[in-house]
Amino acid sequence: MDVRREAGSEGRSGRPRPVLVEIVTYAPTIFFHCQHCEVAFGQTGIGERLHRDQARESLPENLRAEFAQVADWAHRLLDRHGRRIQIRVIDAASLQGFWKSLRHGTRTYPAVIVDGQECYAGASLAVAELEIEQRVAGHDMPDHEREGG
């Protein structure tokens, strides 16, 4: 699926589509049991503790801290822009993460892909944030201003 869009392209509702922000990073992996077991674990109170322990142990400390920093950054973006952005977190160790890394030529994480086009890699999220701010501002403009008329 090609996610490239021109700034300000409109969705079905007539409103501009949100700016797509894909974050490729190492993310905690949590495995779930079958639905019946999950219900039983949830009712006995061990399900939540089990998943919390899995999340805590699925990454080394340095990657856990990096993920927490990226998650905080993503939450601040959502707080500031709301529905004008859509954030997807992609585990760098997954097949989709491998494909995104290959397609956008990055081997450094976190990598931020904005609207399927621009890729910003490394620990500094400030440059990616500037691009996101510009895209959101472009989406907020009326069509006649965007087209220079």
Name some characteristics of this structure.
single chain, 149 residues, alpha+beta, Glutaredoxin, four-stranded mixed β-sheet, 6 helices, globular, disordered N terminus
Quick description:
With 149 residues, this protein is of the alpha+beta class.
Descriptive overview:
- The chain is an alpha+beta fold and 149 residues long.
- The protein has a domain of 97 residues: 3-Layer(aba) Sandwich (Glutaredoxin).
- 48% of the residues lie in helices and 15% in strands.
- It has a 4-stranded mixed β-sheet with strand order 2-1-3-4, sandwiched between helices.
- A hairpin with a 3-residue loop joins strand 3 and strand 4.
- The chain is globular, with a radius of gyration of 18 Å.
- It starts with 18 loop residues before the first strand and ends with a helix.
Mean pLDDT: 81
According to CATH, the fold-level topology of the domain at 19-28 and 60-146 is Glutaredoxin
The H/E string reads EHHHEHEEHH
Beginning-to-end CA distance, first to last residue: 32 Å
Unreliable segments of 5+ consecutive residues: 1-8
Largest sheet: 4 strands, mixed
What's the SSE blueprint?
Blueprint lengths: L18 E7 L9 H10 L1 H12 L3 H21 L3 E7 L3 H10 L6 E4 L3 E4 L4 H15 L2 H4 L3
